[in-house]
Amino acid sequence: MQPMMRAFGAALASSALVLGVSPLALAAPEGQPEFKVGAIDWKPCEEVPTMDCGFLELPIDYAKPAGEKFKLAVSRRKANDQAGRIGAMVINPGGPGGSGVDFSFGADRYFSKEIVDKFDVIGFDPRGVARSQPIKCSADLLRKQPSDYPKTKAEFDQLVAFNKELREDCRKQSGPIFDHASTRDVANDIDSIRRALGEKKINYYGISYGTIMGQHYAEQYGRNIRAMIIDSNMDHSLGTWKFLETEARGAQDMFNEWVKWSDRTPSSPFYGKDLRKIWKDLLAKAARGELKDSNGNVITAERLGANVVGMGYGPAFKPFADYIATLVQGAPVAAGAFAEGETFENPFAGIFCNDYNLRVSSWGEYQALNAMEKRVAPDTLGSSIGHGAMMGCVGFPKATNPQHPLKIKNAPKILLTNSRYDTATVYEWAVNAHKQSRDTTVFVTYEGWGHGVYDRSECTLKINNEYMVSLKLPRNGTSCAAVEPPAEASVLSAKPKIAGPF
């Protein structure tokens, strides 16, 4: 599913300190042995020398704390106002596979001044990601990946065989971290960070796949939370059918919103035209194999639909309309490219497939699921994210951290936010996550479009900042009005990149 998101994404555009904290004996996760965590040996970050970077040595398997260890990469952007410092805020940008360390480097551009003034912003690369013993797979094998839209039983069986081979290759290239990279493991790591920092309670901001980390942390360590914002939410309770159906509906809803935008926006190349018919004709052309990129590769109907999903992140209504206009005119569009190298970081297989037990057992089941997603989303042929996530795990053994209803106890009120129209973490997921945690979450809806709510409007910014700084929460069910997206660029174009697909 990684290449799908790159295709349209490419078209859019201090001194060293050592904490004086002695190693701490930690209360281990329930039913597991106790272990110790040491201090973080901070040094100036190579990329941003005014920030601190370091590593925290932790067990790969918390059930075997004396066993093999790995080094978790951690970063710290000290609060500007140390005298008025409130505490530490751990952040994560999603993915699965996003670097929280990289996210922290741009924290002063992403978060408001009142946040970076009052909080030490703590980034970390989740286990298996970037600087934290990344999960790797052979690049040569990844280049051989068959389509995750099989047309025959033979193609389905080929994908199953490939995924099994890929999983074994990734495990061989990555070592034992591959089998211990679930979000439940990451929640334990977050609490280890809290202990290493010497903080009684922490604050947390997680967006996209970072919300599932926050949800798990709240379930396991709710008593250790001061404030938590989970922005653009995963729903870790859905089975295969419902996961695929909700993602497909979110994709179709975004397509409908794009058409509405074009109908009301004179700068759209399709203003005053029948965009639905134009799209239907283009989709039919793609299905006939008549759409091609600049390398002569066919743009399939599924790939065309995937571009709607990519557009929805911004949302990039105008750039997407311009892109589609070039296709309608017959002009070739740029093709994506794979990076060279012996191995390629591929954390998805070790993270998502251990967090979600979405397993398609047969060609017949796949056909039924694929027919359903096309029925729910005829203009996008389902959701490339949902479809790719499901098919990326076909042939894998059962997940080690499978779905379950969200059960948060002993936690303070948590701020849960979501856009009404989001092709990645669809609105239905946030609604359902809130239903499962209504006693501990306050739900705020941004009535507009795109992935990520924090600074969509003055309304969302005020709610987020007031809560994080003063713990003031709005009434549950509060809505913030939609703000028309900029005509020429994605809303997130000038911000630190949010990891995708979730």
From TrEMBL:
Keyword Hydrolase attributed: yes
Keyword terms: Hydrolase, Signal
InterPro entries: AB_hydrolase_1 (IPR000073), AB_hydrolase_fold (IPR029058), Pept_S33_TAP-like_C (IPR013595), Serine_prot/Carboxylest_S33 (IPR051601)
Signal sequence bounds: 1-27
Keyword presence, Hydrolase: yes
Residue stretches making up the AB hydrolase-1 domain: 88-292
Domain Peptidase S33 tripeptidyl aminopeptidase-like C-terminal: from-to ranges: 387-480
Pfam families: Abhydrolase_1, Abhydrolase_4
Top-level taxon in the UniProt lineage: Bacteria
GO molecular function terms attached to this record: hydrolase activity
Family: Belongs to the peptidase S33 family.
PANTHER family, alphabetized: 2-SUCCINYL-6-HYDROXY-2,4-CYCLOHEXADIENE-1-CARBOXYLATE SYNTHASE (PTHR43248), TRIPEPTIDYL AMINOPEPTIDASE (PTHR43248:SF29)
The name this protein goes by in its record: TAP-like protein
Annotated source species: Lentzea atacamensis
